[in-house]
Amino acid sequence: MSDTDQTTADLGAPPAGGPGIAQVRKVVTEIPGPRSRELLVRQRTLLPSGVESTLPVFIEAAGGGVVVDADGNSLIDFGSGIAVTTVGNSADAVVRRAAAQLGRFTHTCFLANPYRSYLDVCEKLNEIAPVPGAKRTVLVNSGAEAVENAVKIARAATGRPGIVVFDHAYHGRTLLTMTLTAKNRPYKQGFGPFAPEVHRAPMAYPFRWPSGPERCAEEAADALADLLDRQVGSDNVAAVLIEPIQGEGGFVVPAPGFLPRVAAICRERGILLIADEVQTGIARTGRMFACEHEGIEPDLLTTAKGLGGGLPLGAVTGRAELMDAVPAGGLGGTYSGNPVACEAALGVFEEIEQHGLVERAMEIGGIMLDTLDSMRRSHPLVGDVRGRGAMIAIELVEPGNRPAPHVAARIAARCHAEGLLVLTAGSYGNVLRFLPPLSIGNDLLEEGLAILRSAVAAEAAAM
Ligand code: PLZ
């Protein structure tokens, strides 16, 4: 028996996941417990140190609103695998459809021989994406790949090279997408030289706008127009690329009116608008797409994460005449639009419709915002509460609103120890973000918020 067999045998049969899994929080060991720590020791000898987990508990099963680890702890899930298992881990329709497809065929390569489920996913995205007019969709494997392809399409369609992105943006880890990403460490340090023709404008980040939140939308829009007209030259710009709510950058909801201004600035100059909805898309924010909150209609829109229900799938949906500007053979990839992932995506849409999950995201947001707002009123270290639907965050600060990353880390550690899985984010690392699966029940949601409240109170008392 090898070491690996030994470990697996020790664990016994893993519990079944999916919506049937017991919906309780249960902390039976330290977190991480001895089995997870043992696996982490193995990890350190097998993986490069560049691969790091927020909370190294090794997961055995998940569903509804919990994840179960190798030591038998059940943690409340406020992370959804970074906004991926929006319809719940191992959701019924996702498992049923993907499993059936596994038994039929696993792969053909759509570029070699097509299959119907790819068309069904594209038909659905074309129907629901808030892109104007006739639409087309191409499927890829990840969020970064979706963004890369959106840029390729924008350049092919306009014949222009320039791409304008924003401060605090996150778009991926590939050469082009890490260039598009704002934050240096850990995403860019040592990985240059970067891709050319990427320009950065200030983000309308109300909490940190120098002259205050009231003037934020207008001044940030003026700065974008100035960058385009005076520094880069609008004729050189293919597209402005923006997350309608920034994800890794700290759930920055742009000041009201900023996104419509960005759309107008683009339209007036013949520049395309690309919405990166990789984190916000597919019911997460209480709309199918976050663009809908401000009524903007991007020319191209990227999705991934929630789209595949945990299987790797990304997409670019865009105006037909732009998408068709790329000559035959210009888009694709060996695994792009894998048939198992396509069936999973069809399962995701089924779950959203059947369980009214767009509305459920709004409900979850209401519950979270109520609790977090009261926390902000009683604890000055909670500087800001923001987000939409089931995508909500708090920004932790010291006096003078100085970013407090250590406070965020300590609150996260207190939550983890109590069996609540939360993630950090933000350009300054001082944001705690909450992304529960929409399949979480109100009991677990409230229990998670109560743990968070005690963690914040304990941290405030210790300061
Ligand atoms: N665009 C808006 O949020 C991925 C990154 C996790 P991939 N965000 C999670 C990490 O540290 O690697 C993301 C995103 C937005 C693009 C991406 C990239 O998506 O599927 O991770 O490539």
Structure description:
With 463 residues, the chain is α/β, with parallel strands linked by helices. It folds into two domains: 34-77 and 357-462, Aspartate Aminotransferase, domain 1; 93-355, 3-Layer(aba) Sandwich (Aspartate Aminotransferase, domain 2), CATH 3.40.640.10. The chain is 39% helix and 16% strand. A hairpin with a 3-residue loop joins strand 12 (391-398) and strand 13 (402-403). The longest helix is centred in the C-terminal third of the chain and has 22 residues, at 357-378. The termini are far apart. The structure holds ligand PLZ.
CATH architecture of the largest domain: 3-Layer(aba) Sandwich
Share in β-strands: 15-25%
The distinct ligands, each listed once, are: ligand PLZ
Number of domains: 2
Mean pLDDT: 97
- CATH top level class name of the largest domain: Alpha Beta
What is the distance, rounded to the nearest whole angstrom, between the alpha carbons of the first and last residues?
52 Å
Low-pLDDT segments, ≥5 res: 1-9
How would you summarize this macromolecular structure in one to three sentences?
This protein is of the alpha/beta class.
Question: How would the blueprint of this fold be written?
Answer:
Blueprint: H1 3-11, H2 34-46, E1 59-63, E2 66-69, E3 74-77, H3 80-83, H4 92-104, H5 116-128, E4 135-140, H6 143-158, E5 162-166, H7 175-180, E6 198-201, H8 216-232, E7 237-242, H9 258-269, E8 272-276, E9 300-303, E10 314-319, H10 320-323, H11 339-354, H12 357-378, E11 382-388, E12 391-398, E13 402-403, H13 405-417, E14 420-421, E15 423-425, E16 431-434, H14 442-462
Parallel strand pairs: 3-14, 5-6, 5-7, 7-8, 8-9
Antiparallel strand pairs: 1-2, 2-3, 4-10, 9-10, 11-12, 12-13, 12-16, 15-16
The protein binds ligand PLZ.
